[in-house]
Amino acid sequence: MNAMAHRLVGRVHERALLQEAFASGEPELIAVWGRRRIGKTFLVRNSRPEGAHYFELTGVKDGKLKDQLFNFAAALSTAFYAGTALEAPKSWARAFTLLSTAVDSMAAPTPVILFFDEAPWLDSRKSGFLSALDYFWNAWASSRERVKVVVCGSSSSWILNKIVHGKGGWHRRVTRRIHLHPFTLAETKEYLEGRNIRFSPADSIELYMALGGTAQYLREIKRGESVAACLDRLCFQPQGALRDEFDELFHSLFNAADLHVKVVRVLASTRMGMTRTKIREKGRIGAGRQFTQVLENLCNADFVKSYQPFGKAGERHTVYRLADFFSLFHLRWIENFRRKSGKWLSIHGSPAYRSWAGFTFETLVWNHIDLLLRDVGLQNVPTETTKWRHNAVDDSDTGAEVDLLIDAGKAGLRILELKHHDAPYEVSKAESLKLLERRRALDQAIRSRRSIFIDLLASNGVVRNQHSEEVVDYIHEVKSLFRR
């Protein structure tokens, strides 16, 4: 095991896949993708076995072909020729011929890892990179048992469309697929504690609601600094490391970045999410393949997730919601306070903050819903997490809305009530009546065919009282969100 591997946090499944591939007696073509700054390069570098021969080439965004090939020559020299200066090849076809020659010249039967990082940036227009890589794999690497080719990129759409689901010579060639997602709350806590940074559960939740589980963002946090001071320094000060990250992020990941940002802005304006039709209407975006591709790109990169509203099936009812915490935080706060003197401490606790926190806490729970399913014994039961809304039909009907509904089939429906409070939450009589009304309306909608339960989760815990005992079927502890 590489000496650096102990520094890896989480990524248990992904690390095991890589290590299994590197140790196999078969040629391997491994696709790794995930949004920018998520830790893809760190994972690959620190999962390789001791003694493996290692070649790494990183693409440069908007780099010229001659510069990319110059970098290839430098990487080839470092990996195989002890730093001896090499002339840059004139084409990618020639480059891969040089690479295969270098590998074949090695006598030792050790694994050879060929890592192409940010491969989408190597594949510039008319560069010939993809076709040369295709030929390299099919004509040479796929017959070398010790060769492990890793193709990695932040452009998830390129990796998926060109490599994983690629046609022609790429069809069914990928042996391992690794989609690297943001850290969970538990992994974020582990990462910070590995750097001797310890926050309370409430502070950890607030930090996560602002920055999410992006490893590179978490590296910016200083030991001994409060969450409020940290967010102020990183996001609101003129030289803050994340002050301009939003625009840089989207322009580094996507072609037609402005259209991707427009869709994200539209989705940030709603709590329920939107159908494709509503997104186009509100954003004044034309129909067509480009819009479909933008939605796919955002979903593949973990910015957007989709769900089916309860009781509605079919693609036209599919609802898309913004699931990326930093995008939500930027659009609600950083962008609006960029030219103001207000700091995070002055924002915290305001009515606007409470509204944002409630919505974002809901997103956090949704993204960790599998942890709460364990609490009520549904971890092995097929479930759908969704929303439900009943619009009033007359003056006597108040309507009803369930922000988070777990549909567990024959195991019933669970209304999940969420509260983000600075102090332990206490169910009032008025709130208990609202919960009972939601259950009644949902029961009427399904004609009493299934059991309906009410669950409650509060970010700072729940004070149990008469109303909670009478109405709530299960109270989740916030520590469940930090479970591994």
Summarize it:
The chain is α/β, with parallel strands linked by helices. The protein has 21 helices and 14 strands.
CATH class of the largest domain: Mainly Alpha
CATH architectural label of the largest domain: Orthogonal Bundle
- Could you say what the CATH topology of the largest domain is called? Arc Repressor Mutant, subunit A
Structural class: alpha/beta
**Residues in helix, %:** 40-55%
**Poorly predicted ranges:** 1-6
- Strand order of the main beta sheet, please? 2-3-4-1-5
Question: How many helices in DSSP terms?
Answer: 21
Strand percent estimate: 15-25%
User: Looking at the structure, what is the overall shape?
Assistant: elongated
Mean pLDDT: 92
The gyration radius over C-alpha positions equals 25 Å
DSSP strand tally: 14
* Tally of distinct domains: 3
N-end to C-end Cα span: 23 Å
Give a quick account of the main beta sheet: strands, pairing sense, barrel closure: 5 strands, parallel
